[in-house]
Amino acid sequence: MASAAALALLLSAAWAQDRGDDTPMVPGPQTMPPPHEAPMEWHTFVDTARGFALDVPSTHRVAASGASYYVHTTHLGEPTVPDMSLVFLRDTSVEAQLKEQYGPDADTEQVALGPGTEGVRVTVTYHAGDGTPYRESSYLVPSDDGVVRIMRWESFDWDPFDDVARSFRWWTPVRGRGE
User: Fold this and answer.
1) Which of 56, 69, 99, 101 lies at a C-alpha separation of 20 to 30 Å from 79?
2) How many Å apart are CA 103 and CA 12, to the nearest integer?
3) Nearest one of 163, 138, 161, 164 to 151, comparing CA atoms
4) CA distances (Å), origin 71, targets 19, 85, 93, 95, 129
5) DSSP-assigned letter for residue 23
6) Which helix (H) or strand (E) element contains residue 136?
7) How does pLDDT run across 5-55, given as a tens digit for each residue?
8) Which residues lie closer than 8 Å to 54 by C-beta, 6 or more apart?
9) What is the side-by-side strand order in the sheet with 169-170?
10) Which residues have a Cβ under 8 Å from the Cβ of 131 and sit 6 or more positions away?
């Protein structure tokens, strides 16, 4: 309970942080049908400081805290526990992360993410307390100075995770429009 309260406090601070024009929400795709749901509205989160964009359901927001980003919704105006996280890991590689964080039993697959962006989908089999096996996926995206790790926050409970993670793309501002 204390960790949930600490996380809520962290997200509240990150949510309240004035990010100015660095992280605008801009209109994205009109609708995007997730695999098992009716079409939903989406918007695009752009972080010009880190140079990436991410499509998220219109019910969700992205909060930043240092090198970590949390995709979450709100309840009564307050941020909830995140559905997923993105962490920028400096001075590492996809290969190093696979070895250090996932081990030899991880299944890997090269995947196309958002336009012009490639990554690796990593799937690992874990076992619940009762011994029941379950599979969990995350993504590793190489960057100029490390890796971006995209993970579900609480295992397999958020259906749009793969759609959101696969929308990740490196973003470069268009120059020459009144600049």
Assistant:
1) 101
2) 34
3) 138
4) 16, 6, 24, 26, 27
5) S
6) strand 133-143
7) 444 434 444 443 333 334 444 444 434 444 445 567 899 999 998 999 999
8) 44, 45, 62, 71, 86, 114, 164, 167, 168, 169
9) 25-32, 40-47, 52-57, 169-170
10) none
